[in-house]
Amino acid sequence: MASSPHSLVYPLEATRRRVPRVLSIAGSDPSGGAGIQADLKSIAAQGGYGMAAITALTAQNTQGVTGVHVPPVDFLRQQLEAIGNDIEVDAVKIGMLGDAAVIEEVRRWLGEVRPAVVVLDPVMIATSGDRLLAESAEAALRELLPLADLITPNLPELAMLLGESEAADWDTALAQGKRLAAACGNTVLVKGGHLEGPGCPDALVNTVGLLSQDVVVFPGERVDTRNSHGTGCSLSSAMATAKVRLGDWESALRVVKPWLHGALAESAVLEVGKGNGPIHHFHALDNGLQPREFVARLWDEARPELDAIHALDFIKDLQSGALGETHFAYYLAQDAIYLNGYSRVLARASALAPSEAEQLFWARGAQTCLEVESELHRNWLATRESSNKLGPVTKAYVDHLVAASASGSYAVLVAAILPCYWLYAEVGRQLHDGYVESGAPEGHPYADWLRTYADEAFAEATRKAIDIIDVAAGVASPAEREAMLEAFIRSCRYETAFFDAPRVHG
Ligand SMILES: Nc1ncnc2c1ncn2[C@@H]1O[C@H](COP(=O)(O)OP(=O)(O)OP(=O)(O)O)[C@@H](O)[C@H]1O
Ligand SMILES: Cc1ncc(COP(=O)(O)O)c(N)n1
User: Fold this and answer.
1) What count of Cα atoms within 13 Å lies in the side-chain half-sphere of residue 318?
2) CA 30–ligand 2 middle distance (angstroms)
3) DSSP 8-state code for residue 281
4) What are the domain boundaries of the chain?
5) Looking at ligand 1, which residue's alpha carbon is closest to its atom 7?
6) What is the Å distance from ligand 1's center to 139 Cα?
7) How many distinct helices (H) and strands (E) make up the chain?
8) DSSP string, 434-495
9) pLDDT one-digit tens code per residue, 412-460
10) Ligand 1 contacts CB of residue 281 (under 6 A)
11) Which of 96, 141, 235 has most ligand 2 atoms within 8 Å of CB, for mutation?
12) Nearest to 205 by CA among 140, 257, 250, 147
């Protein structure tokens, strides 16, 4: 059948779901940090509905494993059949399997049911060093790998699956990831948790063109904590859930990695156990923030800048009509240059957006910027003397936005983006109201320009942008929220400097 754009899009759409139904087939950790207990928390934290078919019972805590009991495999089959006879499963995460008989049962079930998304975390040895897979079952586990869409081995597991020695550096790990992906025909998530040093990168690797590149690296900073019990379990089940919600592995890891970082960073508040404690899966719920609280804080920060803007000669003279034409032309020319850079930054926000609605919102914003830029050239700059040279304030402002987009954090980027909507809308509203209140004087040289400020579509887009930032702050870690605040304040200062630039540099 000839491929049409529709046939390319449809399968992706068909697998996406707002609340994914995710089944974990894994072992139980009664202390709640790893295994199915961690999986169910991760799935819920990522917005999914979690289910669990238990392969094995362990007796363990944060200090180690003291016992493993693998129930008769028939009972695992009964659990899987009970789920399969009643419930549609959107994604499956497979964790601890225990022995070869369990692996065989899971292999049989996967072959029969063929779930749309299968993530396999090849659990072999716990953080504590205790075995969770019989040595004799390693060959059977290797045979299971091709039935998964995503495999998430840590560095010792990656080496063991390839029959090689453990990678001591990131490049070797990536090369091993490529070999495993090629051998299994699926995607491998190479994890940097076991590396030394301040960085903790992860990477998605696929050698048959399923990703935007063969190797997509997600850099990350290492959290200084020993509470890493269950990070591997949590990551794999969160990925299974996010994949169904967002449609592809890269979007999923873009959301899951900052969440996991926050869960590690906030783990100390749990105070569970004396050893390697669990991570805080619901750290984002525990931020104490009420809806609108974060944006109210941003507004408090923005208010002095707004006052500073209204005190500028540029704004006062634009309002009264006394503004010199040279300064107005300088402002317009810099605005056109700025909008071009801003459009690219909005396109980056669109690329990082966690939902299609937000992706579309920023993409529309990027398009509007280019339309307004060309309108400036056509109608406002065509008849004026102005230089198209990049001014120092414009450059510094755009550089700041580009740096925010390079941070990789969607939340930080959109916080940096917001002042251009919010302060501009506010300044525009006040200028327009002032013009109307003064009786819209005849012959005001900037009357046409002041009228452009009464744009309801822009006011509506501003309200939507504020909502997006509030939600992004709600799921961000405290450190990320501080970075959002900083990026926002800096952009506010550039807004003021931008209106003052015609006086200083024009
Ligand atoms: N100290 C840390 N700081 C930040 N991220 C970390 C840290 N430790 C692990 N991670 C992240 O946690 C995830 C699991 O990585 P890791 O390589 O530790 O796997 P694992 O050994 O299977 O996990 P587990 O600790 O559950 O056995 C990866 O996304 C990794 O980047
Ligand atoms: C039931 C079960 N499954 C998986 C792990 C691995 O998790 P970790 O490597 O963090 O100990 C575990 N400890 N227990």
Assistant:
1) 27
2) 11
3) T
4) 17-283, 293-505
5) 193
6) 25
7) 18, 9
8) HHHHTT--TT-TTHHHHHHT--HHHHHHHHHHHHHHHHHHHHS-HHHHHHHHHHHHHHHHHH
9) 999 999 999 999 999 999 999 999 998 988 889 998 888 888 889 999 9
10) no
11) 96
12) 250
Question: How many angstroms does the Cα of residue 33 sit away from the middle of ligand 2?
Answer: 8
DSSP annotation of 225 reads -
Distance 79 CA to ligand 2 centre (A): 21
Q: What is the mean pLDDT of residues 300-329?
A: 95
CA separation for the pair 37, 28 (Å, rounded): 7
Residue 177 has pLDDT above 70, yes or no: yes
Q: Is the pLDDT of residue 286 over 50?
A: yes
ipTM of this predicted complex? Answer: 0.98
Give buried/exposed letters for 110-140 (b at 16+ CB in 10 A, else e): beebebbbbbbbbbbebbbeeebbbeebbeb
Gap from CA of 194 to ligand 2 centroid (Å): 15
Atom of ligand 1 nearest to the CA of 233: 26
CATH code, residues 17-283: 3.40.1190.20
Fold equal for 17-283 and 293-505 = no
Q: Distance from the CA of 191 to the center of ligand 1, in angstroms?
A: 7
pTM: 0.66
pLDDT at 4: 33
How many other CB atoms sit within 10 Å of the CB of residue 463? 12
Average pLDDT score over residue span 250-255: 92
**Ligand 1 contact, 230 CB (< 6 A):** yes
Q: 293-505 has which fold?
A: Heme Oxygenase; Chain A (1.20.910)
Does the C-beta of 154 come closer than 6 Å to ligand 1?
A: yes
Q: What is the mean pLDDT of residues 62-85?
A: 96
Asked if 55 and 25 touch (Cβ cutoff 8 Å), the reply is yes
Given a cut of 70, whether residue 13 has pLDDT beyond it is no
Half-sphere exposure of 395 (CA within 13 A, CB side): 6
